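Researcher: Please predict.
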Amino acid sequence: KYQADKFYWPGTVVVFGGEKEITQSTESHDSRIAGVVSTEPAYLMNSGDTRDNALSVALLGRVPCSVVGNIRKGDQLVSSTIPGVATKYSIDHYNPGMIIGKALADYNSDTPGVIEVVIGRL
């Protein structure tokens, strides 16, 4: 668990920063990626953390993630300019540490939606 500056729904892309430990992403290809707010963590470190807005953040594994744009299975995902939403990685904007994970489903819309993503060492 990480303490967020406010409550964020599962699937929200978060970065290290803000008023507490984490906040939702707001920059494209941000290298401060912490992970994605999790729905059902298999293993929860700091599970006893009862502070306000202590959120479960997926660091490894499979998790629903908010996404936008034209995404195909296997595409690497990064933060977008839409708060808390991921998009397909662009080689033109490389920044070490920016990869969130890889898409497990296709998605193609300018409106944010949710797909499953593999988070972690890729």
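Model: The two ends are 22 Å apart (CA to CA).
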